[in-house]
Amino acid sequence: MSNETYLNHPTFGLLYRVCVLEEHKELYTTLYAQRLFFLVTTSVAGLTCEPISRSDSRLLVENRLRMLRRAGQTEEYDKLMKIHQRTFQ
C-alpha cells in the first residue's frame, strides 16, 4: 500500500506531496521535474496553493526535521531525511 498523495493543479498539472509540514500545511512539487514547489494549505474555505522557491521549500523541510528530532519521532525523522536527501541533494 502506497502513501503517495497527488493534487491536480490547473496550470502545472499533477503535483506530488513531498511531506506534511504541520497540521493543514503540506509541501508539494511538480511530479516530473520536481523544480517547482507549492505550499498547500487546507482550510474550511478549501485549498490554497502558493508557489514557493526551492530554497524556501528546503528550509521548511529542514525545520520539520528539527521539530521531529526534538520530539523524538525517529521513525518519521528517518523517512523525512531520506525524502530531503532525494529531493534537495
Structure notes:
With 89 residues, this protein is α+β, with helices and mostly antiparallel strands. It is built from 2 helices and 5 strands, in the order βββββαα. It has a 5-stranded antiparallel β-sheet with strand order 1-2-3-4-5. Helix 1 packs antiparallel against helix 2 (74-88). The longest helix is centred in the C-terminal third of the chain and has 18 residues, at 54-71.
Estimate what percentage of residues fall within beta strands.
35-45%
**Overall mean confidence score, pLDDT:** 92
Sheet/helix structural class: alpha+beta
**What general outline do the C-alpha atoms trace?**
globular
How do the strands line up in the largest sheet? 1-2-3-4-5
How are the SSEs ordered, and which strands pair?
Layout (H helix, E strand, L loop, with lengths): L5 E4 L3 E10 L2 E6 L6 E7 L2 E7 L1 H18 L2 H15 L1
Antiparallel strand pairs: 1-2, 2-3, 3-4, 4-5
Write a compact overview of the structure shown.
With 89 residues, the chain is an alpha+beta fold. It contains two helices and five strands. 37% of the residues lie in helices and 38% in strands.
Notable characteristics:
single chain, 89 residues, alpha+beta, 5-stranded antiparallel β-sheet, 5 strands, 37% helix, globular
